[in-house]
Amino acid sequence: MKTIKNPKPKSKKPAVDKIGDIKKLVQLLQIHQVELEHQNQELRIAQEELEASRNKYVNLFDFAPVPYFSLNPDGIIKEVNLNAAKMFKIDRNKLVGKRFISFVSLDDRDIFNLFMHTVFNSHVKSSCELKVMNKDKRIFNIRMEGIELEDALQIERYCQIALIDLTQYLNSIDSSL
Predict the structure, then answer these.
(1) pTM higher than 0.90
(2) Which residues have CB under 8 Å from 53's CB, separation 6+?
(3) What is the 3-state secondary structure (H, E, C) of the chain?
(4) pLDDT tens digit sequence for 125-142
């Protein structure tokens, strides 16, 4: 009879080596955890700085002494500051979505259309003078200044416009003549 030798069992790593590997993995995980916590803290700081910067922009925009609007190429009001809402005597939530041209006097609508065309095609600050009317039918002689702004986060093109009320200035000139 032939004796069959038992095949050698496959060599297994000793338990000590496995424990060493596990310890190394735990140590690596702890290092990665510390790195992630550090990155998370940096992100929190960046978020706080971004929020502070955004609040500063909102305050500058909202409380500026000049009426400001953001318009898309069709002249639709996208944003409006508090002073603009006050000038037009319309709540700013009700101004958003309206066509700015609806406030422009009929005689000056061609001027406004040319202004909008120039703003969106020249990429330089443009201006014009025209008359606008508020909710109470009060007419303002204004100088409108605008420029297209580029914002990587914005899908739609838009321009920022400022209105400078010339009414009192022009009235004082007329009365002195």
Answers:
(1) no
(2) none
(3) CCCCCCCCCCCCCCHHHHHHHHHHHHHHHHHHHHHHHHHHHHHHHHHHHHHHHHHHHHHHHHCCCCCEEEECCCCEEEEECHHHHHHHCCCHHHHCCCEHHHHECHHHHHHHHHHHHHHHHHCCCEEEEEEEECCCCCEEEEEEEEEEECCCCCCCCEEEEEEEECHHHHHHHHHHC
(4) 999 999 999 999 999 999
